[in-house]
User: Which sequence fits this backbone?
């Protein structure tokens, strides 16, 4: 199992479009992917779940993957979040 | 059934065509239990429907991208992702395995999801309920085999009349102008989003029909008359002939008015009026530039924002403003900063408020979200290099708001300087006078701003405490109420004494009787929809300022709006005879 924390750095937070991008990225991997915010755990391959996190600017997420490509999966998602989804 | 439905005339013109009924509502789904041996086929039916819905959405997305741009289309990618959601599919399929028919299984799950989103603490989540509702409707329609209500699925060249409850921005993005020739809605008033949009697109529209979507089945032949506010269903040949005759006459009148494009807007006694155009979308600027308008008196910028998932960045805004400024080739372009909130919600979502028109909107929101506001100010400063750009602040009630905005404008300039990006310094900064507070304190504002522009819709709404979107109050929304006329006159007097330009840029500046009243109150600058420029010019050229002053003086002393209107309309008719266009916007005839 691979784990990594990530901080939301784009101003608008994880609104619909970034949520769709996270899901798209997560779905490229075979590992099961969970995203945790405080006591809420959601499936990283489900847009409804990711949106449910309502992760606004500055919030901390924990990315967790379990499977053969777990390391690549968490680092790809962390990178996407750090890139601010092309926003400011 | 009564064949003639009467609503509120929202955008002039006559169209004869088939009704395209858009019932964008979640249908009722009866509980239906399936036998165990039908489960595999039912799962298959559900998956096929999801695939079909995704295909349809991809088509909608591509068309929206082509017509409105990739930012507007992004919302449909989100809806596609929602349909692909594994959690969603697992829940629906588990209900099907418990012997629920596919439509009921999906209906139950979507109702749960929508409730969870709707009650979420985060406004960002609540904003997305609309997308869930869209896929809820779309998939159920496919599963139940409802007639196709897809707004974009009308073949090109159909010239259909779109009949729907209300035209939301997300539906507007999908509107194909080659297929839809007219709009009729149950909700709305003359000044609602849909009415303004229809006028700027030049589509005939009737709003406030109350229950047209319930009375129609779709596919009927109909006549929509946007000038009188009627929708006639299954007209006889003789009725169609009468409407067509009127349509031809209106077209002839309009062609004659268009000849006025190059004529000067000057009254019979030599008062020169400056006539500018309102522009909603950059795409409209070429048409506005050839209408005979001397620049833009109001460029609304919210249409860059509504119905999108992200805010437009500095570069995108700069390109949009520059396009308008260049189309007007050095003539003044007054650009209003974001007037979002109220009925125009921005990207990303904002809190639902009990009283949005008294809430966190326009300059209030911009000052509180200063990073977002400075993006717009930087784009405006840069666009200023390409022509005569003037910045206008909406909904101000205190001079403090002007001072804060000016401070942010200075910061925006400093940021551009730091980045070495060229921009125009010292753009004129003016205010909208659209609250009684701003009108009464016009003298305070006059000392610190470059111009006033009176926004009549909001001034009427806030003065009379009448919600302009409330169909039950439409008759109480009276721009000629003496209280409104007095506030306009006070603003004009104060502004002129201080040597400021005072313009009127509301929708009603295009109604003949209001043009007459405004000139009588001393207004010398009007800004109207491009389509209305020739008509307003025709009115200006047919009246004397002296008669207008006499009429306005009598109107302002009247007991009520009806009395004011009698004073104005009587004299206006004396000047023009019984011309058909005088009826537009009149309460009594």
Assistant:
């Amino acid at each position: 199992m691979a784990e990594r924390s990530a901080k939301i750095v784009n101003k608008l937070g994880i609104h619909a479009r970034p949520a769709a991008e996270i899901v798209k990225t997560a779905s490229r991997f075979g590992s099961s992917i969970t995203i945790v915010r405080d006591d809420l755990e959601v499936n990283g391959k489900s847009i409804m779940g990711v949106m449910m996190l309502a992760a606004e600017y500055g919030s901390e997420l924990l990315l967790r993957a379990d499977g053969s490509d777990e390391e690549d999966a968490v680092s790809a998602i962390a990178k996407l979040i750090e890139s601010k989804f092309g926003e400011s | 059934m009564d064949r003639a439905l009467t609503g509120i005339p929202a955008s002039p013109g006559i169209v004869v065509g088939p009704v395209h009924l858009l019932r964008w509502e979640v249908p009722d789904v009866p509980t239906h239990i399936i036998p165990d041996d039908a489960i595999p086929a039912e799962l298959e039916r559900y998956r096929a429907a999801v695939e079909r819905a995704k295909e349809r959405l991809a088509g909608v997305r591509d068309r929206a991208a082509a017509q409105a741009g990739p930012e507007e289309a992004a919302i449909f990618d989100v809806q596609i992702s929602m349909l692909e959601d594994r959690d969603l599919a697992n829940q629906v399929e588990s209900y099907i395995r418990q012997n629920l028919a596919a439509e009921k299984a999906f209906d139950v799950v979507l109702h749960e999801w929508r409730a969870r989103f709707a009650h979420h603490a985060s406004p960002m989540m609540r904003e997305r309920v609309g997308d869930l509702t869209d896929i809820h409707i779309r998939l159920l329609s496919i599963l139940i085999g409802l007639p196709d209500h897809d707004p974009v699925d009308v073949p090109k060249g159909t010239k259909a009349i779109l009949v729907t409850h209300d035209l939301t921005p997300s539906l507007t993005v999908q509107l194909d102008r080659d297929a839809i020739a007219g709009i009729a809605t149950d909700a709305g008033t003359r000044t609602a989003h849909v009415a303004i949009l229809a006028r700027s697109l030049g589509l005939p529209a009737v709003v406030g029909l109350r229950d047209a979507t319930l009375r129609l089945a779709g596919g009927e032949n109909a006549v929509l008359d946007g000038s009188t506010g009627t929708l006639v269903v299954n007209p006889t040949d003789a009725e169609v002939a009468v409407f067509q005759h009127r349509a031809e006459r209106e077209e002839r009148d309009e062609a004659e008015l268009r000849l006025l494009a190059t004529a000067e807007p000057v009254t019979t006694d030599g008062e020169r009026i400056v006539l500018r155009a309102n522009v909603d979308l950059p795409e409209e600027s070429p048409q506005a530039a050839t209408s005979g308008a001397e620049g833009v008196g109001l460029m609304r910028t919210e249409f860059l924002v509504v119905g999108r998932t992200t805010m437009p960045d500095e570069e995108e805004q700069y390109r949009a403003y520059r396009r308008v400024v260049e189309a007007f080739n050095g003539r003044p372009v007054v650009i209003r900063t974001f007037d979002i909130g109220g009925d125009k919600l921005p990207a990303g979502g904002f809190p639902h408020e009990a009283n949005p028109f008294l809430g966190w909107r326009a300059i209030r929101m911009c000052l509180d979200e200063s990073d977002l506001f400075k993006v717009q100010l930087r784009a405006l400063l840069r666009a200023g290099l390409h022509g005569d750009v003037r910045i206008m602040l909406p909904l101000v009630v205190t001079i403090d708001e002007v001072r804060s905005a000016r401070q942010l404008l200075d910061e925006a300039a400093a940021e551009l300087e730091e980045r070495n990006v060229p921009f125009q310094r010292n753009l004129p900064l003016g205010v909208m006078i659209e609250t009684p507070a701003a009108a009464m304190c016009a003298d305070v504002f006059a000392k610190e701003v470059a111009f006033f522009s009176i926004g009549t819709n909001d001034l009427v709404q806030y003065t009379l405490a009448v919600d302009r979107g409330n169909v039950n109050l439409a008759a109480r929304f009276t721009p000629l109420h003496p209280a409104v006329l007095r506030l306009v006159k006070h603003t004009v007097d104060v502004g002129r004494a201080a040597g400021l330009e005072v313009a009127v840029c509301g929708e009603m500046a295009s109604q003949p009787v209001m043009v007459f009243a405004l000139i009588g109150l001393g207004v010398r600058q009007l800004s109207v929809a491009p389509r209305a420029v020739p008509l307003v010019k025709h009115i200006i050229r047919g009246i004397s300022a002296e008669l207008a002053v006499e009429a306005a003086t009598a109107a302002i002393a009247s007991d009520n709006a009806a009395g004011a209107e009698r004073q104005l309309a009587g004299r206006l008719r004396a000047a023009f005879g019984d011309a058909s266009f005088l009826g537009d916007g009149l309460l009594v005839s």
About this structure: Confidence is low (pLDDT under 50) at residues 585-589 of chain B. The first helix of chain B runs from residue 39 to 68. Chain B has three domains: 4-23+150-238, 36-144, 254-583.
